Amino acid sequence: MRARRSTLMVIAALAAASLSAQAPAEAPWVANRPGFAEPPQLVARGAWQVETAVGFSYGRFGVAPASTSPTMLRYGVANGTEFRVASDGYCRSPGETGTVSGACDLSIGMGRALAKAHGWVPELSTFGYVKAPTGARAMRAMHLQPTAELSEEWALPFGVALDAMQGVTFADYAGTSTWSGFATLALWRSVAPRVRGFAELAAEEMTLQSAARRSLTAHTGFAFQLRPHWQVDLDLTRGLSKGAPAARVAAGMVVRP
Predict the structure, then answer these.
(1) Most CB contacts within 10 A, which of 83, 97, 114, 219?
(2) What pLDDT is stored for residue 242 in this prediction?
(3) Is residue 186 packed enough to be buried (19+ CB in 10 Å), middle (13-18) or exposed (0-12)?
(4) Could you tell me which CATH class the domain 2-255 is placed in?
């Protein structure tokens, strides 16, 4: 009887070990927020994630701040491939003749992993978006607006990660159409358990046609992972050029069910 029990216990232990080995590993946490750069990591196949925030941009004294509520839905359609739907949400923009507000245009995009990190070779992904004129009349663009991006991340000594992103986009507002480029460098490091801080320098919009539309910004902030699938974050931005807002603050949240 005792031998039979021992045999059953061994079988049960082997079965548990087999099931544990076959169980899928927990997908690593990835998030686009905070900051301007989009890191190259993609959500796992079959996983979906919602990233949202509320942001306020400040310009001249005496003028009400502009506000947005950027939101992105991410879904892993395959290993190394991600589908995205994004929008700046409800936007409010004060101007010389009054304040305009309404829903902003919707973007649909895809992300594709190109390379895994190896030594000094960075993790590399590419992203493509098309923004459609789907927003409120006051906030709507005139035409489709394509965007192409390349994103890299290097793992540096002392637990530091260096993120870089470059891209081009076609902007068309108020009857003006132009191609512009953007680029950014960001340093990330864990500053406490479940808390990561960052500093970033971003050329958010660079065009030859108009100096007023050249936007250079500096960012800092943190991301706090409350639970395995919950994150809250803060992004503080300082404008460094005439085309950038004087200051911007955004508080966000990321949820993966």
Answers:
(1) 219
(2) 85
(3) buried
(4) mainly beta
